[in-house]
Design goal:
Layout: E1 20-26, H1 36-45, H2 67-75, E2 83-90, E3 96-106, H3 121-130, E4 142-150, H4 159-175, E5 183-190, H5 191-199, E6 204-205, E7 211-213, E8 233-242
Parallel strand pairs: 4-5
Antiparallel strand pairs: 1-2, 2-3, 3-4, 5-8, 6-8, 7-8
């Protein structure tokens, strides 16, 4: 079995307008898909908020607003083995619009030696956005989820939870030939934004991998001129064993 090939769910020959469905795609294929502009917009719209205490600047560009720059930015963290789980809506004209997304990739580096210090926290966060992922080294394999987004219009329907389950099954499928199929999953997120969400889905905190990001932090170069965090935030880290 080719571990880099995502599973392909069986599909009907045609879909009804407004039908909602989910599939997994190789990450490298995403920028060439006709729905890439819609996915690009989804990733940025997912961070919009009118809450005055929301820590993210408004607007916050998870992906660069220039779609040509956004494509390599999107792909860099995922590496050659990364995949993207998408929930899409079939439009009346036959096009497809992403409404929820989640990415999976091998965890970067060596888990046991990955202990960022306070002085490394900001650089580590920047690298989590932009650095290429390395294949996991020692067994059991370690995979990471990132780039989670749901359209504001479709929140509250459990779409992200369904994508997480689908993506966990995909990771298990890719790793089934090693270590009895056991996999260690890892996530990093802003605690107040989605820490409770991941804990509710079985991810247990890893305090030694927490980090703080200072007010004004941005994952872009300063020359880009994008605003940074409105205040200091805590980066929460969690793990979950599959099987």
């Amino acid at each position: 079995m080719d571990p880099s090939r995502p599973s392909q769910p069986s599909q009907p020959s045609s879909r009804e307008p407004n039908e909602v469905f989910s599939e997994i795609f190789p990450a490298t294929s995403i920028p060439s898909q006709p729905y890439w502009p819609s996915l690009h917009k989804l990733y940025n719209d997912a961070w919009l908020s009118d809450d005055p205490d929301w820590p993210m600047p408004q607007p916050f560009y998870r992906l660069h607003p220039d779609i040509e720059k956004a494509a390599p930015q999107f792909l860099r963290p995922l590496g050659p083995r990364g995949f993207v789980a998408l929930t899409l809506v079939e439009e009346s004209d036959g096009s497809r619009t992403p409404i929820a997304a989640l990415s999976g990739m091998p965890f970067e580096g060596d888990w046991e030696s990955h202990r960022p210090t306070k002085s490394e926290a900001e650089q580590s966060a920047k690298e989590s956005f932009d650095a290429p992922r390395e294949d996991p080294g020692p067994k059991p394999p370690i995979w990471e989820f990132n780039q989670v987004a749901t359209s504001p219009k479709y929140r509250g329907r459990g779409l992200s939870s369904k994508l997480i389950k689908m993506a966990e099954e995909e990771v298990l499928r890719r790793c089934e030939d090693g270590n009895g199929g056991r996999v260690r999953m890892f996530v990093r997120t802003i605690e107040e934004v989605s820490g409770p969400f991941w804990r509710a889905r079985g991810y247990v905190e890893v305090p030694e991998m927490f980090a703080k990001l200072p007010e004004g932090f941005t994952h872009y170069d300063k020359e880009e001129g994008f605003p940074g965090l409105r205040r200091e935030v805590m980066i929460w880290a969690g793990e979950k064993w599959l099987r």
